[in-house]
Specification:
The protein has strands spanning 10-21, 27-30, 33-42, 45-51, 59-66, 71-80. It is globular and about 30 Å long. Strands 1, 2, 3, 4, 5 and 6 form a 6-stranded antiparallel beta sheet that branches. It is 0% helix and 62% strand. It is mainly beta.
Amino acid sequence: MLNDNKNSAIIIDGEIEEIEKVTFSPRYMHKDRVVFAKMITINGEKYYCMTVGDLAVGDYVKASYLKNSRLIIKIDFYGVNQ
């Protein structure tokens, strides 16, 4: 992450295909909810994301991530695959 710059974040959009738990995930509280790290697969690529768990497989999202670390810094939900 030392070489990542949030000003050069890459934006992707697509369907969440898989959500995996991260072993020994860091966690913290956000608005009285525990936030866990997850590996989220979008369009066949894996990304690291901190989430309260509101996302699900089949959701369509738009995400900004840091190229070198594949860390999602912003994710927006915009639909569900029907």
